[in-house]
Amino acid sequence: MSGSPIDIDEGYVKYQSDWRPGPAPDAAAVRLLDTWRRKLYAAGLVGHYPDLGVGFGNISIRAPRAGEFIISGTQTGHLAETGGEHYALVTEADIDGNRIVCHGPVQASSEAMTHAAIYALSERINAVVHVHSRPLWDALRDRLPTTRAEVAYGTPEMAREFGRLWRETPFRNDGVAVMAGHDEGLISFGESLPEAARRVLELSAD
Predict the structure, then answer these.
(1) Angle between helices 112-119 and 156-168 in degrees, nearest 10
(2) How confident is the model at residue 120 (pLDDT cuts 50, 70, 90)?
(3) In this predicted structure, what is the pLDDT of residue 2?
(4) Interior/surface letters 178-204, b for 16+ CB within 10 angstroms, e for the rest
(5) What Cα–Cα distance (Å) separates residue 189 from each residue in 8, 63, 119, 145?
(6) Per-residue pLDDT at 205
(7) Span 128-187, pLDDT tens digits
(8) Looking at residues 65-73, what average pLDDT do you find?
(9) How many Cα atoms sit within 13 Å of 84 on the Cβ side?
(10) Which residue ranges form the domains of the chain, and what is each CATH number?
(11) Is residue 5 pLDDT above 60, yes or no?
(12) The model's pTM
């Protein structure tokens, strides 16, 4: 993350959220998510904008039941460590209807719609990571697969953009993309959470 001014509306849920408060998701899944989220946090790829009072970055893994995934909750970016109370289970995602159903102690991340769209691309995708980095965003925009600049985060249009990248660019094989319409935003996926996280951590190390 850079100290430069940013032009984002990060952290605000744009989809219709049907949040059903309940117990924390699977403990083993939460431990795995927290292990890799700590690495992303340490690298500055997940965190908090003090001037805006909002967090950035989120992480998820596919759940055993078809169509479900566990994702970090909204407004948790400021936390260096997370527990079950900071994750939600998404059980339904209606992209065309712009609606997410989630269960747990916290509401799902504002990027849950985008995560859902990426999981829908292939059953091989088992983890999705969304991070922020001004240096990476500036350097890699239009060099890596890049969403259209007019498409805002957290919208059905952004969800559909990843389908376009899957069909038309190396995103399908390389698993990393830049979100041109989401200042500082990048996203990755993998067949496992370590693979998805390492894809952006290795970019950061270059």
Answers:
(1) 30
(2) very high
(3) 36
(4) bbbbbbbbbbbbbeebeebbbbbbebe
(5) 23, 15, 9, 13
(6) 65
(7) 999 999 999 999 999 999 999 998 877 788 888 999 999 999 999 999 999 999 899 999
(8) 95
(9) 11
(10) 16-205 (3.40.225.10)
(11) no
(12) 0.91
Q: Is the pLDDT of residue 7 over 60?
A: no
Q: How confident is the model at residue 13 (pLDDT cuts 50, 70, 90)?
A: low
Detail the DSSP E strand segments found in 81-175. 87-94, 99-104, 127-132, 146-147
Amino acid of residue 45: L
Q: Check: CB of residue 172 under 8 Å from CB of residue 128.
A: no
Calpha distance 163→49 (Å, rounded): 30
Length of the chain: 206
CB 128 within 8 A of CB 189: yes
Please tell me the distance from the alpha carbon of residue 206 to that of residue 191, in angstroms, as a whole number.
22
* 125 in Cβ contact with 119 (< 8 Å): yes
Given this model, what pLDDT does residue 157 score? 86
C-alpha span between 33 and 112 (Å, rounded): 15
Give the DSSP per-residue string, 11-55. T---SEEEEEE-----HHHHHHHHHHHHHHHHTTSSEEETTTTEE
Cα-to-chain-centroid distance, residue 18: 19
Query: Scanning the structure block, which residue is given the tokens 């390389």?
Result: 174
Other beta carbons within 10 Å of 74: 24
